[in-house]
Prior knowledge:
Subcellular location: Cell membrane
Order of helices and strands: HHHHHHHHHHHHHHHHHHHH
Organism: Halorubrum ruber
Largest sheet: none
CATH superfamily: Amino acid/polyamine transporter I
Membrane topology: Multi-pass membrane protein
Radius of gyration: 21 Å
Main location: membrane
CATH architecture: Up-down Bundle
CATH topology: Amino acid/polyamine transporter I
Distance between the termini: 6 Å
GO molecular function: transmembrane transporter activity
Mean pLDDT: 83
Number of helices: 20
Number of domains: 1
Amino acid sequence: MGNHDLDRSLGLYPTMMISMGAMIGSGIFVLPALGYKKAGPAVVLAYVLAALVVLPAALSKAEMATAMPESGGTYLYIDRALGPLFGTIAGIGAWFSLVFKSSFALVGLGAYLLLFAPLSQGAVVYVALALGALVVALNISGTKMSGQIQAVIVTVVVAGLLAYVVNAGVVVDTARYTPFATNGNGGIVTAAAFVFVSYAGVTKIASVAEEVKDPGTNLPRAMLGSMAVMTVLYIGVVGAIVGLSDPEVLKTGGPGGTASLTPMADGAGALFGGVGVALISVIAVVALTSMANAGVLSSSRFPLAMSRDDLLPPTLRTIDERFKTPRNAVLLTGVVLLLLIAFVPVIELAKLASAFQILVFSFENMALVAFRVADMPAYDPEFTAPGYPYVQVFGFVAGLALLTQMGTFPILGALGIIVGSALVYFAYGRPRTDRTGALGAIVRARRGEEDDGVAPTKQD
């Protein structure tokens, strides 16, 4: 096949909607109550803090995406910057995290589904499995179709969220904002670590860069535009949730006295009357399905890119001749997604995915530094991230600081992913590649050798 096996079918609007769709999910419909439990009404500031920590990685990734507009995103940039060992760890870890987030979204929608549908708790799992299968089928049948459906869904959901915020401005109880920071500054930082994953979608679209029209222009605009819109939307929605809901319901309204799993629905009756809870619940189900679709669309490109580089078996680089999608990579992602929904308590383990996302975002900043220092001819981005290197150093340090707030289990889980991914590299990838990346180019330059350190991506 030619140099671009995948179809460049995504314009600016659907690309931006994929990014926003990946963020309009648990970050709005599930996590605000968990953040409230840790920070009180100051959870609004936690979302702002998380956005500030994500921004350097978004800027860095926007630059790297215009230099390498190929499938793979996080994996591709860290691999080309730091070498295939770090690339394998980033690729498998980011893939795992995104699949886990998608399964978490589909299972999490069950809590909202039960608010308006006459289903048993056991039936919710089957609904989630059916929606998961539908998402996989959409992703196999074509990126353009998946992107178009995503654009329609996200547009409708954003309209619903704006109506929620505007109406809340009339009926909120201002007394619920005091005391504001119930657990001090430490509570805000801890809450920021847990809601950080809300913004992870802003960089997911880089993994489908090979399917974006005019990537040098559309990728930076989609990333930074979607992040700006979502930051404002998060502040408005979370502020509305705090002002509408009973504090005790937010903190203890979930299973077994845990934080509520349906914070947007908790105060919806005050907005829209008797139909309020059902209306918000329907929007939540649609939005969480959209988030799962965006997750499968982007995460399936990690095994595709790694297979092209001989770090995973060659069958994963197969492109469907009819639909121009990475069929086997999507199927692998879909199988893991459905297994997680059926057998794994994903809600309990969602923190693990968040911890690894924070780690990956931190190292994406260092990947940009490696590219800039190496100054390789092959690295020629159309967009240049501002504030280098201070912005990248801040993003790296701030990310690691947030990671310390996640607790022991998520950190150990992230370390487990690192070890497992490293074993995959040494057992399969190392004998098949001799690439060293920009970091290796820096070392060779200091030795007086010449090598751009970057191997071309294989297109079979």
